[in-house]
Specification:
Elements (H helix, E strand, L loop, with lengths): L1 E4 L5 H13 L3 E6 L4 E6 L7 H5 L4 E5 L19 E3 L2 E3 L5 E5 L6 H14 L3 E3 L17 H14 L3 E4 L6 H7 L2 E4 L7 H8 L5 E4 L6 H13 L5 E5 L17 H8 L4 E3 L1 H5 L2 H13 L4 E5 L17 H17 L5
Bound molecules: phosphoenolpyruvate and manganese (II) ion.
The site of phosphoenolpyruvate has 10 residues, from loops.
């Protein structure tokens, strides 16, 4: 971190600030000029609050030299992380495809979809039991009954399950029952929730908040990791822009950015990004070509009658055809499905 001081600051004021910063446990390397001085801070600056330093009246500006995320940072962990969910790996050579309905609607529905996506090569079954809906009058999910259905289908098919946790009240149950806990876009900045899931060892699928920068996204991962849970899988699901044609704008540039900045795996959800079923295929292909570690895709056996997100759900046959095409793109990227 670099602290740039205002012009013509008195020596004793500089010494006072140096003493204060040293007291916070960092080494201070001052460069004292005739009119302007700069303090270089080295050591563990992760716990320093830049706005607190900025509040000293002699400080002009505080700048980061390194990114504020440490545990998620590639610099401190050059090897890519591979997250294990039973024998399914996320972040390795094989791509991880998570698929299933937006929400759990019945045992028969989930079982039928699960069997077909498994036959097509998906590795994880998705399905919301607790749904974050914009309207309180929309279907809110089947709740604990939905969770039981997912568990039964897991038993039947062997597919691990990923489902969204919205409230801390369900955390213990999720840790016991779920293979991957999803933190949805709306909760990416729910720091209390992030800290609590960080105390578990269950892999976390963290979706990007709809108005979050890449750095904010990584800082949310940092919240989870700083509590001890390093099993974080990032998921790009589109961000809000001025464009209204699509539900969100898929920011594929995040994939190479995350590969440069972090060792965490990143998957892409083209369904929530586009909001239209016919865009899922081209965006899924582009995501794999861009270097994503996998995909999350909404698949429904009867989209027209889906209780949630039918307009962006593809049918099992379309998913199967897509997987065949993705295998070829994966090969070009030296990956496999
Ligand atoms: C979901 O995956 O079911 C979901 C609600 O996604 P997001 O949090 O990205 O909107
Ligand atoms: Mn959905």
């Amino acid at each position: 971190m670099v602290v740039i001081l205002k012009n013509n600051v008195k020596q004793e004021e500089i010494q006072g600030l140096i003493a204060h910063l040293t007291g916070l446990g960092v080494e201070v390397h001052p460069i004292i000029g005739n009119t302007q001085s700069i303090l270089g801070l080295v050591g563990d600056t992760s716990k320093l609050d830049p706005s607190m330093i900025q509040s000293h009246r002699i400080v002009e500006k505080v700048m980061y030299v390194q990114e504020p995320f440490k545990k998620a940072n590639k610099v401190f962990h050059p090897e890519n992380s591979v997250i294990s969910v039973k024998d399914h790996l996320i972040g390795g050579k094989a791509l991880s495809v998570m698929a299933g309905p937006c929400s759990v609607e019945s045992y028969e529905q989930v079982l039928e979809i699960a069997k077909s996506i498994k036959a097509s090569g998906a590795g994880v079954l998705r399905g919301g039991a607790f749904k974050p809906r914009t309207s309180p009058y929309s279907f809110q999910g089947m709740g604990s009954e939905g969770l039981e259905i997912l568990k039964q289908v897991r038993k039947e098919t062997g597919l691990p399950i990923v489902t969204e946790l919205m409230s801390l009240e369900w955390l213990d149950k999720f840790v016991e029952d779920v293979d991957i806990i999803q933190i949805g876009a709306r909760n990416m900045s729910n720091f209390d929730l992030l800290k609590e899931v960080g105390k578990s060892k269950t892999p976390i699928l963290l979706k990007r908040g709809m108005s979050s920068t890449i750095e904010e996204f990584l800082m949310s991962a940092e919240y989870i990791m700083s509590e001890g849970n390093e099993n974080v899988i990032l998921c790009e699901r589109g961000i809000r822009t001025f464009e209204t044609y699509t539900r969100n704008t898929l920011d594929l540039s995040i994939v190479p950015a995350i590969k440069k900045l972090s060792h965490l795996p990143i998957i892409v959800d083209p369904s929530h990004a586009a909001g239209m079923w016919w865009m899922v295929e081209p965006l899924a292909k582009a995501a794999i070509a861009a270097g994503a570690d996998g995909l999350m895709i909404e698949v429904h056996n009867d989209p027209a009658n889906a209780k949630c997100d039918g307009q962006q759900s593809i049918k099992p046959a379309k998913f199967d055809a897509l997987m065949t095409k993705l295998k070829k793109i994966a090969e070009v990227e030296e990956r496999e499905i």
